[in-house]
Write a structure and sequence with these properties.
Blueprint lengths: L4 H44 L5 E9 L4 E8 L6 E6 L4 E3 L5 H7 L1 H4 L1
Antiparallel strand pairs: 1-2, 2-3, 3-4
Length: 111
Amino acid sequence: MKTSRPFLLMILIPVIGTLALAGLIFGGQAMSDSGVDGEIKRALAAELGTSEDIDLQHLQDVQYGYGICGAYKAADGDGYASFYYATTSDRLTLDVNSREYTDNCGLSAIC
């Protein structure tokens, strides 16, 4: 009587293991990105002194993921304004003329 153990051991278990590992890696990355968005929204709300919802647009990782540039708008605001968020120090910069913003989010930093 033949058994199907070689198929199970050589094909099915490695495929299931690979799929599980891929799910852990990409699922963890997606959860990490949503957590950073929440941190940015809380920092913006604290800086602006508002409890209203804040909309984030055009988020871009800079400095190899150590910073994030983007635009925000408060629920009562008319237009979007730019910001830079340093993920290592949790520091928020709203002044687009500051050295920290221009060094990290300027056109030369993107190119």
